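ZP: hey, is the adenosine-5'-diphosphate complex queued? I don't see it on the tracker
AM: it wasn't, my bad. submitting now with these inputs:
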Amino acid sequence: MKVLSVASEVYPLIKTGGLADVAGALPLALKRHGIAMRTLLPGYPAVMRKIGEARQIATFDTLFGNPAGLLAVEHEGLDLLVLDAPWLYDREGGPYVDAAGRDYPDNFRRFAALSLAASEIANGKLADWRPDIVHAHDWQAALTPVYMRFSPVAHSVPSIMTVHNIAFQGQFGADIFPELALPPEAFSMEFVEYYGDVGLLKGGLRTAHAITTVSPSYAQEILTPEFGMGLEGLLQARGDDLVGIVNGIDTVVWNPATDSFLARSFDAATLKTRIENKTALAAEFGLEAGDGPLFCVISRLTWQKGMDLLVEVIPEIVASGGRLAILGSGDPGLETALFAAAGRHPGRVAITTGYNEPLSHRMQAGADAIIIPSRFEPCGLTQLYGLRYGCVPIVGRTGGLADTVIDANEAALLAGVATGFQLAPITADGLRMALRRAFRAYADPAVWGRIQAQGMKSDVSWDRSAGDYAALYARLLSKKGL
Ligand code: ADP
């Protein structure tokens, strides 16, 4: 089976968040199910640098007014198609924002072009490769099924839309519609029209043959006004076509026994040697040595991630003998508040901003626990890395966090199944209570060691979920009349 995946970021080429991890790991996991996945992504400068010499296998005489090329290359086991369109992608700054952090004003065009190229590939643009299924990720790829729907040829190729976070919808003013090269009827409730605007994700969710999101709990939550962010009605109407499949992680990239970023590798059997990573991590962050727990946070610094709640509980973490190492960037107000907290508690709280993949590995390997007080979390990956690295997750009871971490309540502790701590309600007080429970458990090394070991036994690999995607593809292919 041949599947075209369409994504705006793919690890290890370009990453701003969990989408890249998923888009980079799923194709490898699907290989074991006999599925050949090719991934289309934009040719940002970082991508072009990393792929080096690549074969041009097709051209577009005009894609939104300019010529573009399609490059094919194998990279670390991934079969990539790179959309080479310098006037759209060759920019300093990130994939979505300029160097000053502002959204590129033509993002709709940049990602409509990606989607249009995908739909042409579905139509048979490449003489020797046509996908059986098209799998589009998030709003950036969401016009793919819409373009397919309005093209005369591609009806027979089923499409899947995966939502990694419904908070990001790709909503633009109605004035962009004429630029999308869609027929006038596409600007309607059945397609991309969204409360008078253009909603790219909305169009994809209406049009794709199946919808997935990244955990069973989140699949339920987005049916409600609290989490659906305006799309709950549409999703309810499409409830039969919506499933939640929890993300896995790349267990080769994230393996504490072989991870070259670490001061000391370890596995469940040699867990005690993990302490060397803790000592090194504390030193790296300029934190005091000590017996208390070392907490970490690796996160976008945003309201969604509950970082304001973290700010509120820092005095209690410090007063209880804990230390805290933070890696993240995001909301300037939250960054300032966290720097201020670090300034008030030198040697006990430290923050590093920017994006640092190797450091994120060292933190998972050295900290005792990772705090993830998200208000909503479609799946979340950092708790999965934490489980695998013996870094006990303390998580908001929501979405994928609720699905993947087993709370250390008395019953779970007795049964030996606990893998972390959940907080509910997701408030500063809820976080305080969860931290108190974590401090208590940490004080008894036998209890803490059991929680760590149990976490390390959790299956956080792609094995099961890749099978779920493979089964979904097979179901779609067997459906008549698509
Ligand atoms: P989201 O995609 O909502 O940001 P996830 O938990 O799904 O959240 O994925 C976040 C990914 O980004 C994880 O791989 C995490 O380790 C990584 N990450 C987040 N912030 C940083 C950072 N500042 N430096 C390095 N990695 C980071």
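AM: back. The chain is about 40% helix and 20% strand.
ZP: great, adding it to the tracker
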